[in-house]
Structures are given as C-alpha cells and as structure tokens.
Amino acid sequence: MSDLFATPSDAALPLHLVAEADFDGWIADQPDSVKTWVGANGFTGALGQALVVPGPGGAPELALAGYGTAATRARARFHLAAAAAKLPKGDYRIASGLPTEDAAVEALGWLLASYRFDRYHDATPMAARLVAPEDIDTDRVTAIATGEMLTRDLINTPASDMGPPELEQAARDLAGRFDASIDVVVGDDLLERNFPMIHAVGRAADRAPRLIDMTWGDEGPKLTLVGKGVCFDTGGLNLKPGSSMGLMKKDMGGAAAVLGLAHMIMATGARLQLRVLIPAVENAVSSNAFRPQDILTSRKGLTVEINNTDAEGRLVLADALALADEGAPDLIVSMATLTGAARVAVGPDLAPFFCDDGLFVTALEHAAATEHDPVWRLPFHTPYEAMIEPGIADLDNAPKGGFAGAITAALFLRRFVTETPRYAHFDIYGWQPLDAPARAKGGVGQATRALLAALPDILDA
C-alpha cells in the first residue's frame, strides 16, 4: 500500500501552496525570473491553479498550487487535489503553505485523485505523485485511501461481473488479507438457517442469494457492520422503468462501503471485535419472484406485507440486522443505498443517518467535519411508526402516500434491532454524479472515513 506515496528523494520538486490572500506577499519575495514567469502564466493563488516554474537552466525548479480563499475552500473538498491533477509528471513534496491540521486530509485527497477504474480499458494514470508530508500517519492515510478505492472498484464493476458470487469473493479476498474468518450461507440453505427474506428477494435470480458473515479481532468493543448487497435491482415484479434502472449496479453500495470501512479498520489495527454482514442478492424477475401482497415472515418472527417488490433492500437488511442483534454488540451500523427519498432530501453529496444515541451523533458530526466526509442527521420519528403498520401484517415494506420515505424505511429497520444499545443507519447514495477533486464520477464511499475517525470516541466511552 505504501507505493501510493512517492519515495522521498532530492529529486522531488518543492510544491508551495499559495492562497489568494498570501499571493502578493509570496511573489514579492521571489526573484525577478519567478515573478515574470508567474505573471505571464496568470497564477494568482486561485483554488485549483497549478504551475511549474523553471529555473535558470530551464529545468523545473518549483511548483505552485493555488489554495484559494476561505470562501472558495468552503465550497469544495480536497483542495490540493484540484491542483495535483493538473501538475505534470513527477514527484512533489510540500514545501510551504499547507496548514498542519489539513495535511492528512489533503494528502488523502491527492491519493484519491489518483484513482482510476481501469478494469475494462487502459486509463491514463495521474502524472503527479506526492511525497507524504511530514508529521502525518502515512500508514493510516494509505489504509483509508486503499479502503475507499476498494469501495469504488466494487461499485463501479457492472453486475455482469459483480453478482452475489463475486461480492462474496471480494469479501473472502479481504478476509484472507487480514486473517479474518468468513462464513457464507447460500441458496436454499438460507431457509434452513432462517433467513427467509434474503431468500425470498434473491430466489428469482440465476445467481443464488447468500449471507456473507465475516469476523475479525478478539478483543475490545464489538462492532457489527451490515451492508445492503443488492448487486442489481430490476425492481422485481414492480419493474423499474429503464431510466431508474440505469445505475442499479450501485445498489450494492452499502456492501461496498462496509467492506471499504472494514479494510480501514483492519489495516489500521483498531482494537475492536468486528463483524461484517452482507445479504447479497439480485432482485430479478422470474416465475418464482416474490410478489406484491405476499406476506413474508422474517428471521425475527415479524411478518411483512409486500406492497412493492422494489422496496427489497430493507427486507434483506432486516434478516441480517436480526442476526446482528442476536449477538448484542456494542454498536450496529447499517449502510444502504436504500431510498430515493433520501436523495430528494439532501442530494447526492450528503450521507443522511439515523441514530438516537447522543454520543454517537456528536462524535460522528465532529469527525465528519474534520475528515471532510459530510453527513446529515435525520430523525427516527416515532410517530411515523403507524405508517409502516398495514394491519394485515406486522409491517409494510412500502407505505403508501409517498411522505417521509427515508424515515419510514429507517423505522422499518429499527424494528429488527431490539437487543443492541446503539444502532445507526446510513441511507447513502454511493455515487458521484460529476467529476470533482479526488472524487471521480462513479462509485464513491460515504460516511466511512467519518465513522472510522469517530469509532474510538463512540466505542471507548
């Protein structure tokens, strides 16, 4: 993993970060040749600008990266990454201008800017490589970047090559890398092991549904991560229109996120007992597909009326959450690309979460700000419980009316966590719609870096 950073050497070009407010003072101290070159190229310190300055013999002598203003930085993340992507081939070391408190985040942004999804075609690598800034935890930053790249790779891979068996293999590969244990329940064995809703959602697909169960660590607090692994979602018999099906390879984004977070946790050697549960299915159309108005009995014994087969994610999560809850860990976190309502509420960039534990909320929101990994709290609004109670069964998987869809989905999931003191649910998007610094268009992790940073405060309290 360490090869993500360049090896320190005298050949690395010094890189100066220059904010707009500091530009006049910086340029005044430079020799005339630098002043002339910088002026001729229009460098002003604007955010994202990049410039290599030649020395007397014409060879590069230093490089500049614009660091903008407080206002422009507030509207963006990973400020150095915007300039890094424009620098020519070579190794660079930070010489000045990078605030110490931002060094780790900006170094991470540089690494994430180098991400390329090249499984199906040759992708030009980013030319500029960074020598790790002094006084950052290089191994930790590298572990985070590698975990995020894993998440992106998994989401970006189409369902033809990322079905339930391939998602299982990705979990097995991760387990093997860190000497974790893994157990997988497949196909009709799901019924024998009492995972009826995972089986019902996935039984129509050619590739069998499964529950992936990975464990790591034997001391410290117990953390269970549950990730929605719907590898493709047609909507089932309530078939999605084509315009809504186009991004459904990303419907396993919750599984991808928890596997990326698990990598970060294990690679940094966190002192905790980790469990990762992933119900991996395809929601397909066939003669044996589950139907609207079917009533399913969950692992927990609660009955669920199916009013829309396209609200399948909460069904597979429910069985996995019931299993997680039986272990009574200190904390359960579920992550899922669950509802369009969450996107309407907060858009693609924010990761909404639900949690009633004040310590968790405070620690996570603080970490989200410092890690530049934004989240937004939505309420487990208990008065809406009546909306998920259909009368004919204990629960309704798709309440009518269209109001508060993200909240009612979260309340549905909460019904399956009754023995665990702390539960948090994240309704993520898992997709970057447009290219942005350090976040290429495509699959993306959300809230995982914030969670990693917050876990010590949450679990050690």
Short structural description:
The protein is an alpha/beta fold and 461 residues long. It contains 16 helices and 19 strands.
Determine the fraction of residues in helical runs and give it as a percent range: 25-40%
**Poorly predicted ranges (pLDDT <50, ≥5 residues)?**
none
Characterize the largest beta sheet: strand count, sense, and whether it forms a barrel.
Answer: 9 strands, mixed
State the separation between the terminal residues, measured CA to CA.
Answer: 32 Å
Strand content: 15-25%
Overall geometry comes to: elongated
What is the overall number of helices? Answer: 16
Helix- and strand-based class? alpha/beta
Number of domains: 2
- Going by CATH, the architecture of the largest domain would be 3-Layer(aba) Sandwich
Q: How many DSSP-defined strands?
A: 19
CATH class of the largest domain: Alpha Beta
Fourth-level CATH superfamily of the largest domain: Zn peptidases
Mean pLDDT: 97
Rg: 24 Å
CATH fold naming of the largest domain: Aminopeptidase
Q: What does this entry look like structurally?
A:
With about 450 residues, the chain is an alpha/beta fold. It has helices at about 25-30, 30-40, 70-75, 80-85, 105-115, 140-155, 165-175, 190, 195-200, 240-245, 255-265, 315-325, 340-345, 360-370, 405-415, 450-460, and strands at about 15-20, 50-55, 60-65, 90-95, 130, 180-185, 210-215, 220-225, 230-235, 275-285, 295, 305, 330-335, 350-355, 375, 395, 425, 430, 440-445. The strands form 4 sheets. Strands 6, 7, 8, 9, 10, 13, 14, 15 and 17 form a 9-stranded mixed beta sheet that branches. It has a 5-stranded mixed beta sheet with strand order 2-3-1-4-5, sandwiched between helices. It has a 3-stranded mixed beta sheet with strand order 11-12-16, covered by helices on one side. Helix 11 (about 255-265) packs across helix 16 (about 450-460).
